[in-house]
Give the backbone structure.
Amino acid sequence: MIRKSIACSALAVATALSAHSAKADGHYVPGVEGIQAASAPPPGLYYIGYLVHYDIGSFRAPGSSDNLPGRNTGGVTALANRVAWMTSTKLLGADYGMEAIVPVMRTSLHVGAAGIDDSRTGVGDIYLGPLLLGWNGERWDAVAAAGIWLDNGSTSNPASPGKGFKSTMLTGGGTYYFDSAKTISGSVLTRFERNGRNDAGLRPGNQLSLEWGVAKNFGAVQAGLVGYSQWQTSNDSGAGAGANNFKASRHALGAEVVYPVPGAGVFLKGAFYKEVSATAGNGAMPKGSLLRLTMVKAF
């Protein structure tokens, strides 16, 4: 249970980024998007590299916001490699594209309460998104997407990178510009994951993630406040679900800076998040802080 919860807080992004227990979370890692998260780029081929470190300061006990007894720490460092291709084809008035995410991660778990002391490096579960839609108005942007997280990652050890089940993910969100020059923006992005069953027959509860950002341009540099929330929206079911119907949730606040390198066709982003609250579901849940560095390269 502890393993899977960690994966959620770290990757991969989603994206990926974590270890995997069979309880109360999905694949998507909140905090990988922030400022203008719901603005799709114009037609072209893009590489987005998310380098994420999630530092686990404690673990919440199942069904509560209280820490597990003893010293329980860990960390996940992940590089989520995302490739997005926005075509010139129009679908429902939007630019049509597709995407894929391949996460590579290093997970370390030191959980005395569960007798776990393990570290692993490997390729996490891959995301394939055949539907990516981006709309652009005079003072707004919108995005919608659909795809699937595979279950290709290893699950043989506590710190293994795989989740052990597939998930279908739906995405939607919007960005609004408060001035005609588009120097002040607010953005909200949501992801809904419907989790599948693992080999043991357990289906973790579905998950809703919300990321937001409010930003202002200061010349070429953009800076602002960001945050994320994540909720388990349905009960675990199937073999091993147990009698309890606890649902997990977490909330974080942070700040982000965006710096363009126009000559290289590159955007550099840096963000730091601190989780201000976390409540575990049926499995133990990590609580900590997240540091993200992002590079966007247009080809």
About this structure: The helical segments are 2-10. Residues 19 and 159 are 5 Å apart (CA to CA). The longest strand covers residues 72-91.
